[in-house]
Amino acid sequence: EEKKVVPAVPETLKKKQRNFTELKIKRLRKKFAQNMRKLVYEKAKHYHKEYRQMYRTEIRMARMARKAGNFCVPAEPKLAFVIRTRGINGVLHLLRLCQIFNGTFVKLNKASINMLRIVEPYITWGNPNLKSVNELIYKRGYGKINKQIALTDNVLIALSLGKYGIICMEDLIHDIYTVGKRFKEANNFLWSFKLFSPQGRMKKNHPFCRRWRCWQQGGPDPQDC
Questions:
Q1: What is the pLDDT of residue 86?
Q2: CA spacing 20 to 30 A to 187: which of 109, 140, 170, 215?
């Protein structure tokens, strides 16, 4: 039996099909981007409300304690930001502080506090506030996506951390600042922060040292001092 010859598809029809497919993909991407922007806005709005509520609760508790003639003991901090200032030590590599003036977030627990005590002469650390976490991630944040990539687009975060429910910068900041359920995944995704070294020698009266002295051994954020 002779095989039936299938007539070739005209090039014009192929081109129309290709253009239609590209247009459909473009429309889907645009719709996805619009939905993504709306979702990110709603998340940012929700987190802002949560942070404001946390702040107001702290103020209210302090006022109530003062009114009753008592002292309000703040909750134990759960987050620390650690900066390597000098020295070489194996524990520093466990903390992902491979270079001098590298910084990283650390979840505070018994094990991590013991590690910080071991490397105490080589680091400075303290409890960052929301503003510091925001500025670090927005201005100096890099993600581990096969290599070190600047976090300039929420799509980069969604592709890497979307399976954990982290799809944008606000999700990332929220899980880091509140030490949420996905803190480990969020923190491991972030590259160690490379900070500027102070000009001149690290003397006790150096402005850098004066600024960070109150932060040594787990003091408050320098911006609060």
A1: 76
A2: 215
